[in-house]
Amino acid sequence: MIEIHNVHKAFGSLKVIRGVDLEIKKGEVLCLIGASGSGKSTLLQCVNGLEPIQQGEIQVDGISVHAKDTNLNKLRQKLGIVFQQYNAFPHLTALENVALAPRVVKRISKAEARALASKHLKHVGLGDKEDVFPSRLSGGQQQRLAIARALAMEPSYMLFDEVTSALDPELVGEVLDTLRMLKSEGMTMVVVTHDIVFARETGDRIAFFKDGRICEVGEAWQVVNAPREEHTRQFLKRVLA
Amino acid sequence: MFDYTFLWPLVWAEWPQLLAGARVTLEITILSMAVATVAAFPLALARRAGKGLSCQAATIWVEAARNTPCLVQIYMVYFGLGALGLHIGSYFAVLGAITFNNTGYLAEMFRGGLNAVAPQQFNAGRSLGLTAFQTYKNIIFPQVFRIVYFPFVNQITWAMLNSSLGMIIGLRELTGATQMAQSVSFRTFEFFVVAAGLYYAIAKSVQILARVVAWRAFRRA
Q1: Domains along the sequence of chain A with CATH
Q2: SUPFAM superfamilies given for it (chain B) (predicted)?
């Protein structure tokens, strides 16, 4: 379980997150929606400790992310994250991209790491791209590569940070299909997205962010079809128009 | 009009001296590049930090090394330090000055290389559970290496050619040795044509070797 308690986060004087409480249960898919700059992506970065927080606490399976004595490198193995910019390692083949972290962090043998990477590449539909460099892959393929790379660490949670926002429209589908597949396999996911339709169909719950706070959180269909908050209604009207 | 008669046998008689000079040139080139490569890394990192005493010191080094003539730098080490009572032989004065010069250029090269790697690559590595060191070793440096590789090879050539300034303070590197050898017969033209050929041969060998290494190391990407 991921527990977020009263988290505050500022970049200098800019307050990005102003008191967020949220729980993500095992097996759940939680979608975070809201306008750009409302703090959704920053929250994800805080959850896996890439960003420090000024106040509050985030716990992953009972371990406090920002506590001084927490081994973040170990904790991050539980938390796969995929970014908007795919961030493939350009000097490595697809297979090496996926095999790197298991080999270096988990210290499994090169052969095992390659077998593991091969399995995860097949899983996201890139079985025929093992020896291809990222520069030869489409955006959608690079994003699926990033997903395979995170999955290879066998995380308990997957965090997705606007993973389709940088993609050409015709490539969005293949990445969303991969996310749907992960949901069907029972993966716990936190998905920051601008795709309301996807959030409603794939998310168990949706949290609507506004100005660094959670304005509304509830069952996915309820938040989209019958929002309780006026702000949510206005936001949905704008993005669904 | 052209009634100059080339007298090559005079040059061949001094061939061992020229080779000995070339050997000194190679030594200075290799040693100065090796030391400068090690020294340039902390300088590049200090400059990247953007503030603090070490950044200022690194900036002064880089500015002085890149914006004054290499000959002046050699004079500073040989005569300047000499005037202060620190007497250094011409070999180590040239080695020191060229290393100083190389370090300034390489520091900026490495800094540029580090800046050229997308900053998200670091987070991508850390988010997979790699430590900062593992991320630099496996993800950042291999990319920087590719970016700085050919500029680095240029610097090797540049260091080798700069070492010819050693002649001015009496070092018998290739130019110094050639100067000495021709002073007996004053067949300056012949001697320096051969010296130029040797410089060219060394520079070309370095560049061809570098291409072979690059082909083996980078052909995959």
Answers
A1: 2-240 (3.40.50.300)
A2: MetI-like
Quick one: residue A214, left, alpha or beta (phi over 0 = left, psi -120 to 50 = alpha)?
Answer: beta
Residue A132 DSSP SS3: coil
Q: In this structure, are residues A116 and A150 in contact, taking their beta carbons and an 8 Å threshold?
A: no
For residue A59, the cross-strand partners are A3, A64
pTM for this predicted structure: 0.84
Residue whose tokens read 């997903």: A147
Q: Mark the ranges of chain A whose per-residue pLDDT is less than 50.
A: none
Backbone angles phi, psi at B220, to 5 degrees: -75, -25
Amino acid, single-letter form, for residue A29: V
Residue count of chain A: 241
Q: Inter-chain contact B118–A85, Cβ cutoff 8 Å? A: yes
List of domains in chain B: 8-218 (1.10.3720.10)
Residues of A in contact with B121 (CB under 8 A): 87, 89
Under-70 pLDDT residues of chain B: 1, 219-221
CB A180 within 8 A of CB A203: no
For residue A226, give the 3-state DSSP assignment: coil
pLDDT (tens digit per residue) in B202-211: 999 999 999 9
- Looking at residue B221, its pLDDT comes to 55
Does residue A34 sit in helix, strand or coil? Answer: strand
Q: What is the pLDDT of residues B16-29, one digit of tens each?
A: 999 999 999 999 99
pLDDT at B100: 98
Q: What are the distances in angstroms from CA A115 to CA A88, A99, A100, B148?
A: 19, 8, 12, 33
> B142 contacts in A (CB within 8 Å)?
91
